[in-house]
């Protein structure tokens, strides 16, 4: 536990030292949601109808912006190899790194969500369901995205290849999350969509850390 806590603290410290890279996904998220009402017009009904999809597409794209650096710096300075050779299981180390990435990248988005929801004319019920879908779905993005990062960490210009690999994998998550938000706007049950997303999250938590660790070992060989 002491080694894992040290890895977690290191990730937070390094992220706050690189503030420019830390702010890029957040600024992208804010800009997309702020400009979208200007692009499609001020109609409250239209904004409310597309609000869930807008927030989720902006969240996925903003997370992909900062995903590449998840293992990049550790690969370049040799820290990643030391992690894999240490006595601490590799799947636990990568799980801690993914958790740190989620806290650094997602929590600011969740904090800003109430303000940004005003731009899209979301109701209170829609906002709470949006928050639930983000809390359940964004860890899935981090876990699955980390597999793609691990597979391409040794490639040059992997930032171009990474979105092509990951975006198709996020389509089911996008469908279920926006469907849940649309259902609550129509006063329909939305528990089925949240249940499917929770099942995907549990499945990802069970398998993704081992897949990430194995992918890193393959990339280093």
UniProtKB/TrEMBL annotation:
Keywords: Cell inner membrane, Cell membrane, Cytochrome c-type biogenesis, Membrane, Transmembrane, Transmembrane helix, Transport. It is found in: Cell inner membrane. It is a multi-pass membrane protein. InterPro entries: Cyt_c_biogenesis_CcmB (IPR003544), Cyt_c_CcmB_bac (IPR026031). The chain crosses the membrane at residues 21-41, 53-71, 92-120, 126-153, 160-181, 193-216. It comes from the Bacteria. NCBIfam families: ccmB (TIGR01190). Required for the export of heme to the periplasm for the biogenesis of c-type cytochromes. Belongs to the CcmB/CycW/HelB family. This is Heme exporter protein B. The lineage of its organism: Bacteria, Pseudomonadati, Pseudomonadota, Gammaproteobacteria, Alteromonadales. The gene is ccmB.
């Amino acid at each position: 536990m002491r080694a894992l806590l040290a890895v977690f603290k290191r990730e937070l410290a390094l992220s706050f030292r690189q503030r420019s890279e830390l702010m890029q996904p957040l600024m992208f998220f804010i800009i997309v949601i702020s400009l979208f009402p200007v692009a499609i017009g001020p109609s409250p009904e239209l904004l409310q109808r597309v609000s869930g999809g807008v927030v989720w597409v902006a969240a996925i794209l903003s997370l992909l912006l900062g995903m590449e650096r998840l293992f990049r710096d550790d690969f370049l300075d040799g820290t990643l190899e030391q992690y894999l050779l240490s006595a601490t299981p590799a799947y636990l180390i990568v799980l801690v790194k993914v958790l740190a990435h989620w806290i650094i990248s997602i929590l600011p988005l969740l904090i800003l969500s109430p303000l940004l929801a005003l731009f899209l004319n979301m109701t209170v019920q829609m906002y709470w369901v949006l928050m639930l879908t983000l809390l359940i779905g964004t860890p899935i993005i981090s876990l699955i995205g980390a597999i793609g990062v691990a597979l391409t960490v040794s490639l040059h210009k992997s930032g171009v290849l990474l979105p092509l690999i990951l975006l198709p994998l996020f389509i089911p998550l996008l469908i279920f999350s926006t469907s849940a938000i649309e259902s609550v706007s129509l006063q329909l049950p939305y528990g089925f969509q949240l249940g499917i997303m929770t099942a995907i999250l549990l499945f990802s938590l069970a398998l993704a850390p081992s897949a990430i660790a194995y992918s890193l070992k393959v990339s280093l060989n």
